Amino acid sequence: MSSPSAPPGGARARARLEVTAAIKEAARRHLAAGGAAQLSLRAVARELGMVSSALYRYFPSRDDLLTALITDAYDSLGEAAETAHAEVADAAPPHRWTTVCAAVRRWALAHPHEYALIYGTPVPGYRAPLTTLPAASRVGLLLIGVARDAHRRGQLAAPPLPAGLRAEAARLAADIAPDLPPATVTALVAAWAQLYGLVGFELFGQFDRMVEDREPFFRHATARLAESVGLRAGTA
Amino acid sequence: MSSPSAPPGGARARARLEVTAAIKEAARRHLAAGGAAQLSLRAVARELGMVSSALYRYFPSRDDLLTALITDAYDSLGEAAETAHAEVADAAPPHRWTTVCAAVRRWALAHPHEYALIYGTPVPGYRAPLTTLPAASRVGLLLIGVARDAHRRGQLAAPPLPAGLRAEAARLAADIAPDLPPATVTALVAAWAQLYGLVGFELFGQFDRMVEDREPFFRHATARLAESVGLRAGTA
DNA sequence: CACAACAGAGAGCACTGCTCTTGCGCGGGC
DNA sequence: GCCCGCGCAAGAGCAGTGCTCTCTGTTGTG
Q1: Range B8-16, long-range pairs (CB < 8 A, 24+ positions)
Q2: Which chain D nucleotides are covered by protein, judged by CB under 7 A?
């Protein structure tokens, strides 16, 4: 492992990255096996043939390891959604919408504990570091982008907005997507939360002994969500 | 503790009930302070002036204590919703609907950790026993009742239902509310999940630095949910 | 009244996260 | 090319956890 010419980052730094990655990988395995509460530093260290105290050279605490896993999970989910969306980028807005929703659901079913980590109950002393924000926004930005394209092509109908909500809607729109009608942005935020409800209920077992054919159920529900945002297939 | 077949009213049995209640109360306090993960049998025992092993006379394991808390939480939530609904039992269906939703939100904000216990990420390795089912169904039954009344009075419009979902919708309706149109039952289940998405996002901080005026936002979102189920104010 | 059922105490096991100290070995500046 | 220092790992140890087992003393009950 010795490259005589100046190794980028140094051999020591590279080894550090490798060990860090190995720790995260093993931690992700334990996470998938038993959830966040079952994630034990000592067990991870054992699996890697280290002693537990050695782990603290790489992550100052268990929470920091969890934070790293959360960021990675956000990125993984965001990438899955973006990949799925890229394949239908030219389709009608409702189809793009439901495709992104389906990708979120699929990722969640494939990585239940990681999904729980980012969208479930905040774990112990629940402090959300601001560093996770960019990664956390990727799916949201995707959905906003769908609405924005629909808006530009005249495929967007503004949802109803009661008078009492206009101030809040204007504030929301200014923060998130100033080029979209406030009513649309408000509906988008609500739809986003509702999407999370649908995925969470399926994932956390509330649909057990109730809904059986879940994929079509979900597709229909998200299609109606697209309607509620005002996405249309034909030109206005 | 397996089966106290002694006649009711025994002094010993009553003492047992009192200690059990005291344990649950202290546990609920710890739960409110730090969440389920922070709930420690030993801490609870300390607070009650007992030794930890004595607790096991009342709850065979930590999970059993959690189960008791979950059942109580379901009941408390159900009762809050039912009380709120009783006050508007004669109003138009959409108003009854939003009232129940608002009561759920209010209860959740007042008891965040208990809400997390029942609708958040399931505690790992913990499988909810079927005994929690009746308590868990109270809010759902309330919402179904609203739809049923609307149906009887001709204040219910059937939501759209794609052909691919008819079989699943029929199965759902047969299981849950055979007297309602399958499309309505399907929409109800979806709306139920979406309601918990809205509550969960607010509760778990996903609306932080986004939505500020949350009460009107929530009211509007649940009013649109009522529309999506087909609830109408006027007679058809 | 006698006795069994029962509540509680205490020690102990196998874990956990985390800290502190110690010593080894390799990378990198000289 | 040498050799120092830093990065790294190891180990012991602390305080805490859930849970089990044994041993008392009390207490309600047949």
Answers
A1: B16/B58
A2: 7-13, 16-22, 27-30
